[in-house]
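Good day; I would like, with your permission, to put a structural problem before you. What I wish to show you is a protein chain and, alongside it, a tokenised description of its three-dimensional fold. Here, with my thanks, is the record as I have it:
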Amino acid sequence: MLKRKEECSDYRLPATIEVIRSNIRKYGNPLGLSGKEIAGWSEDLNLPREGEVLLYTGGEYQLVPYIDGLVDMLTKMDQGSMGFSLMMGFRNLVDRVGVNPEKIVAGVLSGQKERFRYVNRKAAEVLQRMGLQLCYLGEEELYSGALLYEYGFMYDLRRHARKVAELIRRTGARTIICLSPHSAEVFKLIYPRLIEDFHYEVKTFTEALWDWSNSSPGGLVATFEGKLTVHDSCRMARELGITEEIREILKRVKGVSLIEPEFNRRWTTCCGGPGKVLFPELAGKISARRLEELMDTGADVVVTFCPYCLAALDKARREGQRSIEIQDIIEFIYRGMAK
């Protein structure tokens, strides 16, 4: 039990969590990216702001490379050091002119911005080829607030959710297709408890693809011949219960030989991504271990369906100089449908 007021300072949250929290509150996303940075992938697609089917990215694929860059920096810098304190203190000055210090550092270290940015574009093009008329919030799009929920900042989430819900309401959408399972989880399971009349059909990209493949037999085209394995996202498998849809989709792709890893579906092993901001070194070890489990299948390609899983496993692949390929389901399907 705390007896002295000053002892409370010993229980402050880690600086990185406070950075993420304050960025969501002020900028609408965990790293303070601008609306242009979030929506730049959609240039020249001319997606309308209103419609029955809303494509929701939440900025998550766009954010991942910056987060990885920030984590790379954190592994090299003691968060209790003077250098780290100065960078965070510098925020008070640069925030006045709309510049975000950790975003600058992370942006310099990031080397995969284009790949993750264009996962969104590939998703939009695949969905359009499926016959869906999409709308998109563009530069107004806000992050879902999933990290606020995961870190337990429910008061902040409630305030943020109201802003997100109002933007979605203005689109007139009835269906929301989420590219990240983290967004899908909070929209399906949490928002209805926080926001009145948040009654939408919420689908992941995988579910939308599954629905289409059922109504269009033979519609999936593959340019791939070889062995493939699936890494189940914890959010998709455990929280949303989505496991068989992805497997049935892949089985319908000609040329694919699907091999299961030892730990799969609801018993999937974590990719390490969720803990990387707090415990980057431990997260790296978890990612490397999961990659080994996936490689034990002898597969040529690992398919994921979460931006954080994709980033964590691909980083483990690069650092371990492994030849196996890591692809998001969006990238994999786009490669076939683009022909």
Remarks:
- Residues 217-337 form a domain with the Rossmann fold fold (CATH 3.40.50.1860).
